[in-house]
Amino acid sequence: MTLPVTAMTAAILALFFIYLSYQVVKQRVRTETSFGAGNDEHMDMVRGCQSNLIEYTPVTLIMLALLELSSANHMALMVLAVAFMIGRFLHVFGMHRHHAGKTVKFRQIAMVTTWTTMVILALWIIYLCVTVNLLS
């Protein structure tokens, strides 16, 4: 397979997205809400979990693929991909805890993990663009 890290990450996150989508549908059926959140806080929360995953995943997968195509170190990419996924899983866990009136700590850790992973990937790509493409 040409892009094994990107492919594995995409597959795992696709399954996670299906799970989150199921949670949204289940809540829609429960509250008989076809569109929006219908003034239901739990619906807001499950929709937020789903949409947040979709907001961060595409650009991360693109960056992983670009780095894999540039023959970047697969082990380092795998570590970053796992960190990103942990961040996304922690975000959902944190959203559920926050909705239950508990601390936002897990959401904060999730966002720092997600953003840090994305910044590292972006800087790595910029570094390769400058050093490999512009200076050679």
From TrEMBL:
It is found in: Membrane. InterPro entries: MAPEG-like_dom_sf, Membr-assoc_MAPEG. Keywords: Membrane, Transmembrane, Transmembrane helix. The keyword Heme does not apply. GO terms for cellular component: membrane. It comes from the Bacteria. The chain crosses the membrane at residues 6-25, 75-94, 115-135. Pfam families: MAPEG (PF01124). The keyword Ribosomal protein does not apply. This is Glutathione S-transferase.
